[in-house]
């Protein structure tokens, strides 16, 4: 028997939340958790940009609010496309008000993630922190799990992300560089990378 086409899929071992943030052209109203763990989000804000893939957030008041998220997160991955990286700081994801990622003038940075060994990733490459105005898979692994008790995409406190956000994956285990590169390779087609 000949092998049929196999659709590649992301690693689901340790996956605790998977939000495919894909606008259908009408704009996101809610976000479904494809890990089937029930972590859904609602879009908050005034504007309703319609763009595919992903959802555009305006940088002033729009974000995706989960409320509570997984209690144990050791790997965070998400697709982002900032509108600008010049003289600005963007806030793509916040786990709990203490542990979050920022993009500062085109450099991926972390705040919090204390107590363990944290490694930043861009496009599946460990310790790579350069982000441009095209789609990138950004993320972090941490040997000490964090509680995503206040999970928001596109906002940290009163600070926001200006640009497109796409699929977001949270794992309760530390993925290695090969596993993260595989997720990048399996999902990048949607973002034209």
Could you walk me through the main structural features you see in this protein, from its secondary elements to its overall organization?
The chain has 193 residues and is mainly β. The protein has a domain at 67-191: Jelly Rolls (Sandwich). Helix content is 6%, strand content 42%. It has 1 helix and 16 strands. Strand 8 (100-104) and strand 9 (107-111) form a beta hairpin. It is globular, with a radius of gyration of 16 Å.
Q: Which structural traits does this protein have?
A:
seven-stranded antiparallel β-sheet; single chain; 6% helix; mainly beta; 193 residues; Jelly Rolls
The proportion of strand residues reads: 35-45%
Tell me the total number of β-strands. Answer: 16
What's the CATH class label of the domain at 67-191?
Answer: Mainly Beta
CATH architecture of the domain at 67-191: Sandwich
How much helicity do the residues have? under 10%
Shape: globular
What's the total helix number?
A: 1
Instruction: Report the end-to-end length measured between terminal Cα atoms.
Output: 34 Å
Query: What series of H and E elements makes up the topology?
Result: EEEEEEEEEEEEEEEEH
Radius of gyration: 16 Å
**Estimated structural class:** mainly beta
- The unreliable regions are none
What's a quick, concise take on this entry?
The chain has one helix at residues 177-187; strands at residues 15-19, 30-31, 41-44, 55-58, 63-67, 73-82, 89-94, 100-104, 107-111, 118-122, 125-126, 136-146, 151-153, 155-156, 159-160, 162-171. With 193 residues, it is mainly β.
Detail the topology: elements first, then pairings.
Layout lengths: L14 E5 L10 E2 L9 E4 L10 E4 L4 E5 L5 E10 L6 E6 L5 E5 L2 E5 L6 E5 L2 E2 L9 E11 L4 E3 L1 E2 L2 E2 L1 E10 L5 H11 L6
Antiparallel strand pairs: 1-16, 2-3, 3-5, 4-16, 5-13, 6-12, 6-16, 7-8, 7-13, 8-9, 10-11, 10-12, 14-15
């Amino acid at each position: 028997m000949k092998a049929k086409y196999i659709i590649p899929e992301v690693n689901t071992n340790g996956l605790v939340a998977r939000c495919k943030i894909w606008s259908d052209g009408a704009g996101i109203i809610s976000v479904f958790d494809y890990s089937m763990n029930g972590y859904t989000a609602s879009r908050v804000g005034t504007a309703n940009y319609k763009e595919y893939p992903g959802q555009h957030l305006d940088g002033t008041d729009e974000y995706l609010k989960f409320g509570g998220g997984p209690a144990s997160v050791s790997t965070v991955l998400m697709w982002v496309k900032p509108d600008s990286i010049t003289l600005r700081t963007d806030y793509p994801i916040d786990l709990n008000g203490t542990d979050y990622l920022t993009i500062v003038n085109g450099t991926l940075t972390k705040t919090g993630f204390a107590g363990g060994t944290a490694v930043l990733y861009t496009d599946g490459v460990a310790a790579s922190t350069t982000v441009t105005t095209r789609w990138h898979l950004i993320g972090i692994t941490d040997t000490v799990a964090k509680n995503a008790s206040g999970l928001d995409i596109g906002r940290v406190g009163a600070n926001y992300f200006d640009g497109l956000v796409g699929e977001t994956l949270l794992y309760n285990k530390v993925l290695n560089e090969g596993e993260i590169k595989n997720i990048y390779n399996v999902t990048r087609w949607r973002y034209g990378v």
